[in-house]
Amino acid sequence: MLEGVRLKRLLANKAFVVGAGLLLLIVAVALLAPWLSPHDPYQQNLQARTLVPIWHEAGTWAHPLGTDPLGRDYLSRLMHGARISLLIGVSVALLSGLIGTTMGMLAGYFGGRIDMLVSFAVTTRLALPVILVALATVALIGGSLWVVILVLGLLKWDRFAVVMRSATQQVRSLDYVAAAQANGASTARVIFGEILPNVLPQLIVVATLEAASAILLEAALSFLGLGVQPPLPSWGLMISEAKSYMFFSFWLIAIPGTALALLIFAINLAGDGLRDALAPEGRA
Amino acid sequence: MAAYILKRLGLALLVALAVSIIAFGLLRLSGDPAIALAGEGASSEDIELVRKTYGFDRPLPVQYVDWLGRTLRGDLGESIYFKTAAGPLIVSKLGTTLILGIASLAFALLISIPLGVMAAIWRNSLIDRLCLATAVIGQALPNFFFALLLIMLFAIGLRWLPVSGSGTWLHFVMPTIALGYYIAPAFMRLIRAGMIEVLESDYIRTARAKGLPARSVIFKHALRNAVVPVVALAAVQLGFLLGGSVVIETLFALDGLGYLAYQSINTKDFPVMQNIVLLLSVIYVVLTLAADIANAWLDPRIRIA
């Protein structure tokens, strides 16, 4: 998919380079968190509660981003929190991508009744308020990282289905697909061997957008207390826990909030760059 | 046109029906609703009584049809937590949320239309780039974090606005901004793209060639046509805003449907929770139906296709 021309165009796209670079940095920190983080993110220390970060006068290098009201090192929690956000983004995009791509490609390839059925499912899904249904479901089954991933994955396939449907429709009638069909290739072979590789660029772009949206949703759910549960250092949960201290210790909110914004910014920028470089004709 | 409306109406009804099945099924996710309704520490006789009283011992399809029938007649059951009829409770909160939703939409349009038009007129200029950069940064800010930043600035720092509550119109200012800013980038991009396309079209060139003033060309001729797709997006986004009000209303303790939804979810108040999900979904279905009809009326090409 990434032939030389496209790769060159991608690397010439400044937005993509900045976004992908920032994203790589965050991924590296997340992967290396157990070795990079100065402290155990769960270790409470009642002697070191709510220590200020290094840019305050009283800050120390022992806790560069300070500690939370339970005395846990904030930098370590932030680093481990990146793992949760990325895990959510990747898993939800994979699960919802699998569901949505299958539905969209079937609808686009076969048309007719199947297309009507898929379009109806998408319309119905869009009518449901995602946050509300996710909150209710998590509250009913009990919040945990995997429940959140499962619920969001089962809710967020709509954009995959819509984009993959129209992408498949465009590719279906092209000569090489007809040639494969004429050669007697099975339907599965035509779909996976001929169509899927050609709709892959659009698929990747949707996946980045959906990953970002899933990370934001998890943060919102955890912020409301109905997502990832304590003591896990989800960034949304960290903001929620810091809410009652916002008057005197606003940095407790500002740090995970900024981290969240930076991660979404990086993913969106990389996604926009990918879209422009891989599908210039679809540029808006 | 009549055939198109009829077709869309039929689809909307089917979607509403499907949504009602999902809202009904949502309650069953917890397993046995009788156990949840009876509350903690209920004896097995109590649970059995609840099961009989509410009819949970009947087959699911029978329960669904019964529930749907009562809902359609306006009987939404009783709130377990507030101990009042769920229907009037939900209706009493709807106004606040509708005001918040419409105000947020208006706020988003108010900033996105001028910015989108400017970005399109001075394409690739500094203004255009600045608008696009703001959009990318705006979409990266989680709305609850942005809301907390607003509180820090306007309530704690400047002391201009109340932190939470819903007594006066001042209580709506921060929730409106916190909810509306997030959808503004989508409108801005759409208006920018639409304006660019329209400004390059033949009839705009003709209008310019006739010597019409630039202001008249842009606002009377171009913007009118570029705004058509905005109608459809506005309907979709208003639905999104009503759902998203859960986070913002809870954060600001704004006493609307979103806050009620959060309370009902936290207290396992199933009848209220179920009906809010159903109501918001139906509102969305109606909004998109209205937008489709409006679009077909604005653009005859749609009704024929």
Observed structural traits:
heterodimer, A: 284 residues, mainly alpha, 12 helices, elongated, B: 305 residues, 15 helices
Element pattern of chain A in H and E: HHHHHHHHHHHH
Q: Determine the most extensive contact between two protein chains.
A: A-B, 41 and 48 residues
Instruction: Compute the separation of the termini of chain B in Å.
Output: 11 Å
Q: Please give the radius of gyration of chain B in angstroms.
A: 24 Å
Uncertain regions of chain A: pLDDT < 50 for 5+ in a row? Answer: 280-284
Percentage of β-strand residues of chain A: under 5%
Helix content of chain A: over 70%
Secondary-structure element string of chain B: HHHHHHHHHHHHHHH
| Counted beta strands of chain B | 0
Structural class of chain B: mainly alpha
Mean pLDDT of chain A: 88
The major β-sheet of chain A equals: none
How many helices of chain A does DSSP assign?
Answer: 12
For the sheet with most strands of chain B, the description reads: none
Shape of chain B: flat
Q: Please state the overall shape of chain A, judged from the principal axes of the Cα atoms.
A: elongated
Model description:
The complex is a heterodimer of chains A (284) and B (305). Chain A is mostly helical and 284 residues long. Chain A is 71% helix and 0% strand. The longest helix of chain A has 37 residues, at 74-110. The model of chain A is unreliable at 280-284 (pLDDT under 50). Chain B is an all-alpha fold. Chain B contains 15 helices and no strands. The chains are: A mainly alpha (284), B mainly alpha (305). The interface between A and B is large, with 41 and 48 residues.
